[in-house]
Amino acid sequence: MSQETVTEAQPVKTRGEKAVDVIASVVDRIFIYFFVLILLFCGYAIYDSLMVYTEAEIPTTVAEYVQKDESNLTTDVNFDALHEINNEIVGWIQLDGTKVDFPITHTDNNSYYLSRNYTREYSLAGSIYLDARNRGDFSDDYSVVYGHNMNDEMMFGGLKDFADYDFFQSHPRGKLFTPDRVYDLEVIAYVVTDKTDQMLYDTEFLNNGRNPKILEHIAEKSTNRRDLDTNKHLLALSTCHGRDGGRVVLVASFGDEIETPTEEN
Amino acid sequence: MLLIKIIIVESVIYILFFQIFGLARVKTNAMMPNINGGDLAFFYHLDNKFEIDDVVTYFNGDSRLYSRVIAKGGDSVEIKDGLIYVNNYPIDSVKNFSGELTGQDRVRYPYTVPNDEVFVINDNRDEKIDSRNLGSIKIKDLDGKVISIIRTRGL
What we know:
The complex is a heterodimer.
Chain A: H1 3-9, H2 15-56, H3 60-63, E1 66-68, E2 74-77, H4 79-85, E3 89-95, E4 101-105, E5 129-130, E6 142-146, H5 165-170, E7 173-177, E8 182-194, H6 198-201, H7 203-207, H8 214-221, E9 222-225, E10 234-240, E11 246-257
Chain B: H1 2-20, E1 21-25, E2 40-44, E3 55-60, E4 63-72, E5 76-80, E6 83-86, E7 89-90, E8 111-112, E9 117-121, H2 131-134, E10 137-138, E11 142-150
């Protein structure tokens, strides 16, 4: 392959050797162009995945309307300001000790926010959104909230931490902020199921309140659970699990209403 | 010598990739299943003849959109009962598409496309920001014709 050794050994070249040189340099060039192309292609693939994760972050225009305390827990959400950006933001969910700390959107169909962020721009990571069949004020007996399962615990990627019994036991609390109220959440069950689960994703019951057998079903399907004997409203946080339509659902119950956020914030 | 070479190479690249051809990461799912979000799209800026079924790119405000030409100047377009009629002839099912033609559009049907304009529609019918709501697009406002895509994800 190397031209130089050939040149050094025999300064005077025959026609045949010159032909070899030409062929060698052509081959070198083809390899270089080929590798440059591969490099550009891989570069684009890396850029594209970086963009997916950048787009998954809460836009700074949205994040600035949230107040946090010293331990980085959300304490107040300025919904009036958020509605200027997107009036379909109906809530903000936060689970203590996890990266689950997101706005919740709600619209009239369940595909819109699969690939749009909180400012309605295209984003493969989508948004966290409330089922279109639920009421936007979380007044239903049973509400379902969806989010993509992503690496680095982005979106609902953090839900799978609750599969671990110790983690589940030590992280029972969360909060749901809505424009009118702040709710205490208690995580009560971690369910591994699939998208055909009639009990958890049933259209009929989502339209008409809660399926009376849903707690039995959750008790049966859940791998981790607390006391399930509750009459409280339920909030199901659903994300994908594996490739074949698997779903992970973290069920929380609404605790007592904490307080109405003050107006001056 | 080297400086001249660098200048020449850079200007060639600039003219080639910014004036004649263009490339952009697609940031919409409006052309699913044919173009997905995240694809790298190549387009040709200098074309001013557009045929039926060409995929074109244009701007709506700041956002770059991609749609398919379904009718040209002089054609009449009508969407009713989930079908597209061009000059009273239904044209759906020619290309792969997704979504459904539902809901009220901003334009009034039958819509007659003015000369030097094209009527474009998204392959993903659920994404309604196209000629159904923007009206037909002036050919001089089109940014180019999509000539190729490179897909690295969601194959």
